[in-house]
Amino acid sequence: MARDGDDHSIPADSGSASPRTAPTGRTSSMPIARTQNLRVLEGRFVLERVSDVRAVALEADLLALVLGPDGGAAMRRDDTAEDGWAALWNGDDAHDPDATGMLSAIVAPLAAGDLPVWTAASYDGDLVLVPAGRLEEAVGVLHRAGHQVAV
Which uninterrupted H or E stretch holds 144? Predict the structure, then answer.
């Protein structure tokens, strides 16, 4: 359930306009991604397949519930999980919902570092989960990409 908005195709007859320039040559007023402040949420999280949303307990350990055509997924806190995930949050600093590339500015460096991610979004920000055993590596990658990460 990632809201990124990086797909800004320009019509073929637009000449040499860049993705941030309208075909008329005017610069788009849509904000673009910038370095971000993230924080690591307390605890470890597990992912569960959801086939019936009515069976999901809406309790304090539920971090995110994502529904899709295939059913869904729940992200729950479970500090005892051996293969748990660590959660990063970028929603403490408000950003314009129309800002493009906010999520990709985080996940692209992680992908380049060969780090798997799970994502979910709320109105105010994004959750990016990385394997808990690789959190230190993920924080280093994000720092090198210019982001601030509070651990």
Answer: helix 135-144
